[in-house]
């Protein structure tokens, strides 16, 4: 009873954020074209072809090539508009920002305290425009840093001229600067430095094998071990409508935790596997992956979506309202575009039995990247050292005036 009252209070206060499922179902629930044209492709005629359960991807791709093809797909989306301001530009290789002749510059960043920032970012970078960048967690490797990067700890309250610049990173949905940093790194384009959840640095040391065969008995993969009430409720309601496997602690229906290798032993990487090292390989066996963000807010597009794309599956996504600024056209199924979860489930089932339509959700990787996606990858953690060093250099590093 107490829990029910608390949930009601949270709902009324707006503390829990659910996707709206009351909007009308568009012609193509994958995205809305800013300037729609008359070109129709396979996703516009779902339900008109004879249902044909399939498992192998390559024959599905061949069917799509013969019936639609990259030329027609490209024409359909040539007028597709995205908000380019949702993603920062690197500026590193921009000729307008480079001096044709000038002294070479070197900037060093020391990562302070405990942090999840991966060790594989350690090293020396050649960043273009005559800039080199040293990045390390070791005070021996960098004894006179130009900047101190904090992620799990608060920067010093004060800074004097001659001290390193204070940098603070927060990629959580709340995105809260401390008020003591000179440079703030977040996931939004309005932050001093933007970092997206795309890229390899968020998930190194994993089995990236992609299965060429999809299951046709189980449509949807879901894995979550942080059982947030609002996300769990949405997942439970949707998954009850489709054949699915849930591998995490939340809504588990596969007989317990760490069952992925029982189903897919070919995904093992070592004799002592950890669940995340075979995550991509396991989800690649499914046509669809349910991806629900913790919070639905602009530009907060996390690894939940990018994992599915990289695994060769189609994400069924609930999250950032501007998600299409971060992904290629026709690469995901946007759950918020459906009038109900029942309509969404029906659509997913139809796509899952239509090899031509399903293949079209993979056209972005076969025909070339459209939209902002190349910039989303470029703004990932992979490129953070050079981008941060460039900004530190621009602001003068240790010689910057007391801020």
UniProtKB/TrEMBL annotation:
<keyword id="KW-0808">Transferase</keyword>
<comment type="pathway">
    <text>Protein modification; protein glycosylation.</text>
</comment>
<dbReference type="InterPro" id="IPR017177">
    <property type="entry name" value="Alpha-1_3/4-FUT_pln"/>
</dbReference>
<keyword id="KW-0472">Membrane</keyword>
<dbReference type="InterPro" id="IPR038577">
    <property type="entry name" value="GT10-like_C_sf"/>
</dbReference>
<keyword id="KW-0333">Golgi apparatus</keyword>
<keyword id="KW-0812">Transmembrane</keyword>
<dbReference type="InterPro" id="IPR001503">
    <property type="entry name" value="Glyco_trans_10"/>
</dbReference>
<feature type="domain" description="Fucosyltransferase C-terminal">
    <location>
        <begin position="217"/>
        <end position="395"/>
    </location>
</feature>
<feature type="signal peptide">
    <location>
        <begin position="1"/>
        <end position="22"/>
    </location>
</feature>
<dbReference type="InterPro" id="IPR055270">
    <property type="entry name" value="Glyco_tran_10_C"/>
</dbReference>
<comment type="similarity">
    <text>Belongs to the glycosyltransferase 10 family.</text>
</comment>
<keyword id="KW-0328">Glycosyltransferase</keyword>
<dbReference type="Pfam" id="PF00852">
    <property type="entry name" value="Glyco_transf_10"/>
</dbReference>
<keyword id="KW-0732">Signal</keyword>
<protein>
    <recommendedName>
        <fullName>Fucosyltransferase</fullName>
        <ecNumber>2.4.1.-</ecNumber>
    </recommendedName>
</protein>
<dbReference type="GO" id="GO:0032580">
    <property type="term" value="C:Golgi cisterna membrane"/>
</dbReference>
<dbReference type="GO" id="GO:0046920">
    <property type="term" value="F:alpha-(1-&gt;3)-fucosyltransferase activity"/>
</dbReference>
């Amino acid at each position: 009873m107490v829990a029910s009252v608390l949930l009601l209070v949270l709902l009324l206060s707006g503390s829990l954020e659910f996707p709206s499922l009351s909007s009308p179902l568009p012609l193509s629930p994958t995205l809305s074209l800013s300037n729609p044209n008359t070109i129709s492709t396979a996703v516009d005629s779902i339900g008109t072809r004879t249902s044909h359960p399939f498992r192998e991807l390559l024959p599905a791709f061949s069917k799509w090539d013969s019936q639609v093809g990259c030329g027609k797909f490209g024409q359909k989306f040539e007028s597709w508009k995205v908000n380019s301001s949702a993603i920062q530009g690197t500026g590193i290789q921009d000729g307008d920002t480079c001096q044709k002749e000038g002294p070479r510059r070197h900037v060093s960043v020391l990562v302070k305290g405990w942090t999840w920032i991966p060790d594989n970012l350690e090293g020396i970078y050649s960043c273009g425009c005559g800039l080199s960048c040293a990045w390390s967690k070791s005070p021996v490797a960098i004894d006179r840093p130009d900047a101190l990067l904090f992620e799990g700890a608060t920067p010093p309250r004060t800074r004097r001229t001659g001290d390193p610049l204070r940098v603070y990173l927060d990629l959580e949905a709340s995105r809260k600067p401390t008020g003591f940093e000179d440079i703030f790194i977040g996931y939004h384009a309005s932050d001093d430095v933007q970092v997206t959840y795309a890229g390899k640095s968020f998930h190194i040391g994993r089995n990236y094998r992609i299965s060429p065969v999809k299951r046709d008995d189980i449509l949807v993969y879901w894995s979550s071990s942080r059982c947030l009430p609002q996300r769990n409720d949405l997942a439970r309601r949707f998954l009850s409508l489709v054949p699915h496997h849930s591998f995490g602690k939340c809504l588990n229906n596969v007989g317990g935790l760490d069952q992925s290798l029982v189903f897919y032993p070919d995904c093992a990487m070592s004799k002592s596997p950890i669940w995340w090292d075979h995550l991509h390989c396991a989800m690649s066996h499914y046509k669809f992956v349910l991806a629900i963000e913790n919070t639905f807010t602009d530009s907060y597009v996390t690894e939940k979506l990018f994992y599915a794309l990289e695994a060769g599956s189609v994400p069924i996504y609930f999250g950032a309202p501007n998600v299409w600024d971060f992904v290629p056209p026709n690469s995901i199924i946007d759950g918020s575009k459906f009038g109900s979860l029942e309509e969404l489930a029906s659509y997913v089932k139809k796509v899952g039995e239509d090899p031509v339509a399903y293949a079209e959700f993979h056209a972005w990787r076969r025909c070339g990247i459209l939209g902002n996606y190349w910039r989303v990858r470029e703004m990932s953690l992979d490129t953070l050292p050079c981008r941060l060093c460039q900004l530190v250099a621009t602001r003068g590093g240790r010689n910057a005036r007391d801020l």
